[in-house]
Write a structure and sequence with these properties.
With about 300 residues, the chain is of the alpha/beta class. Helix content is about 50%, strand content about 10%. It binds NADP nicotinamide-adenine-dinucleotide phosphate. The site of NADP nicotinamide-adenine-dinucleotide phosphate (NAP) has 26 residues, from helix 1 and strand 7.
Length: about 300
């Protein structure tokens, strides 16, 4: 694939940014990749492994002359970073982000965008429970959706260019309105994470009673929860603080369903349980047919990539 941007600047050098670096290099999408991270430790690691062509000590230096700037920091940090770099963005540049929530990012960042800069928020629906500059890998976005969330009046050419860039990173792309994005993600990602955190928390409480048997005999279901619940606490704190309404709405529905299943168990209503589990099984089939997961037992994890 041909080069799409001359100079790409990544602000924040964690899992998503480092995966973008590897995937950009794999496809030759950028003439030059530069980066900035808040801590000296992260900048040192990024320099040691040659993650970017150049790592800067300030965000403002990193964004100068960049054609594409991507904010790869937790959702709660987007506004302060955007405010800091805004006066240094090149006219005609595109500013994007990879935040897991879109409405609050759009509202917080938009007021700081100077005229002549295209702000096009985005969210790659790909990740792992690992963080930091060493956790990235080129295949992270392959065949996974990246949702672009163009704001009102976005330049269609700039949107097309960013879309081509994400496709070059291996992703499938879709555009969405920010509120719709947040509702969809509340169902598919945010609430499931909260449930995983809760289940692992319950098991942790029980650990005292069962004397580590929870760990020793952890079965596939629980192990999947623990993997999800090992995700970065700052990132996920910010997701719930910023996607409050949609996650509360989905949690409300979840609780109603849980009570219905609880009642079915108490009343020995096997038909209800069987019908419910039949319906949910077909959702899993739909995901596999859409090419968004593998049908292998244990998600093909034994031989799989690090997801
Ligand atoms: P990560 O590996 O934890 O990296 C986060 C980066 O942001 C680090 O370089 C960190 O700097 C920097 N940072 C943290 N707090 C900051 C602050 N207050 N000001 C400036 N920089 C700050 O995180 P990630 O998984 O790449 O996530 C980055 C973004 O992608 C988040 O918005 C997240 O919602 C989104 N996202 C994540 C996933 C996922 O599964 N992980 C998937 C899709 C989208 P230091 O290293 O110097 O502390």
């Amino acid at each position: 694939m041909a080069q799409i941007y001359d100079r790409v600047a990544l602000i924040g050098l964690g899992l998503i940014a480092s995966s973008m670096c590897h995937a950009m290099r794999r496809a030759g999408l950028a003439g030059e990749i530069v980066g900035y991270a808040r801590s000296v430790e992260t900048r040192d690691v990024a320099r040691e492994i040659g993650l970017c062509d150049e790592v800067f000590d300030t965000a403002t230096d990193a964004v100068k002359d960049a054609d594409l700037v991507v904010l790869c920091v937790p959702v709660g940090a987007m506004e302060s970073v955007a405010k800091e770099i805004a006066p240094f963005l090149k006219p005609g540049a595109t500013l994007s982000d990879v935040g897991s929530v879109k409405r609050t990012v759009v509202d917080a960042v938009s007021p700081h965008i100077p005229d002549g800069v295209h702000f096009i928020p985005a969210h790659p629906l790909a990740g792992t429970e690992h963080s930091g500059p060493l956790s990235g890998f080129a295949e992270l976005f392959d065949n996974r959706y990246t949702i672009l969330v163009p704001v009102e009046g976005s330049d269609p050419h700039a949107v097309d260019r960013l879309t081509t860039f994400w496709r070059g990173l291996g992703a499938l792309t879709e555009t969405m309105d920010p509120d719709h994005h947040d509702l969809v993600l509340a169902v598919t990602s945010h609430t499931p994470h909260l449930i995983a955190y809760t289940m692992v928390g319950v098991a942790d409480d029980l650990r005292r009673v069962t004397d580590s048997e929870v760990i020793k005999y952890s079965a596939a279901g629980f192990r999947d929860f623990t993997r999800i619940a090992a995700s970065d606490p700052v990132m996920w704190r910010d997701v719930f603080l910023n996607n409050k309404e949609a996650t509360l709405e989905i949690l409300g529905r979840f609780t109603e369903e849980l009570f219905a299943l609880q009642r079915a168990i108490r009343q020995g209503d096997g038909d209800h349980l069987h019908d419910y589990f039949t319906r949910t099984r077909s959702i899993r089939r739909g995901i596999i047919e859409a090419g968004q997961d593998t049908d292998a037992p244990d998600f093909g994890r034994s031989k799989a990539r690090k997801e």
